[in-house]
Design goal:
Blueprint lengths: L1 E8 L19 H16 L6 E5 L2 H10 L7 E5 L7 H9 L7 E6 L3 H9 E4 L1 H9 L6 E7 L11 E7 L6
Parallel strand pairs: 1-4, 2-3, 2-4, 5-7
Antiparallel strand pairs: 1-6, 6-7
Length: 171
């Protein structure tokens, strides 16, 4: 069965208030605009994850709030464990998805999200794979497809990078 994984890095956050805990940093103007642009792109391209897993950090929740009106999605789950999770922790979470779910979007943070994308995407067009390997910018999304019957069988280098979308490259 073909499954889709959308890895979405939160948009650019502000650092205006040094007294604010990292988890509570909100989006800055550039981040809000990039989230909107990516949301419009998702709508135009039929991005429809059945499940969205989102970090509870404010910047991740605000990013998702700007995406949701554009997504055709089933359910959303906010999870504390996704906040600054490692690639290994994110992979373990994906392996726990119910097998009836064919597509998932994970909204989270670097470096874990970037490392997970590189870990999973062993195949794909050379240019986008190289671009992904170099950097996973804020508000970017990697779409990875993988053939597997059960999520628990998801492992390194099983996926194909279908798309790597950066807000700055959208018109």
């Amino acid at each position: 069965m073909k499954r889709r994984i959308y890895l979405f890095r939160h948009a650019k956050s502000g650092r205006d208030d040094p007294t604010l805990p990292d988890r509570e940093r909100d989006l800055n103007g550039r981040g809000r605009e990039a989230s909107e642009r990516m949301g419009a792109w998702c709508a135009e391209n039929g991005i429809a994850p059945e499940l969205v897993l989102c970090s509870t950090a404010r910047r991740a929740r605000e990013t998702l709030a700007r995406l949701l009106p554009h997504l055709h999605t089933g359910r959303v789950e906010f999870e504390d464990a996704l906040y600054l999770a490692s690639a290994a922790e994110l992979l373990r979470r994906l392996r726990r998805i119910d097998d009836c779910v064919a597509s998932v979007m994970m909204v989270g943070h670097n470096p874990g999200l970037h490392e997970l994308a590189v870990l999973l995407a062993a195949d794909g067009e050379a240019g986008p794979v190289k671009q992904l390997s170099a950097k996973f910018p804020t508000a970017a999304m990697a779409e990875i497809t993988v053939e597997l019957d059960r999520w628990r069988d998801l492992d390194a280098e099983r996926g194909r990078l279908a798309r790597f979308v950066l807000p700055r490259e959208l018109a």
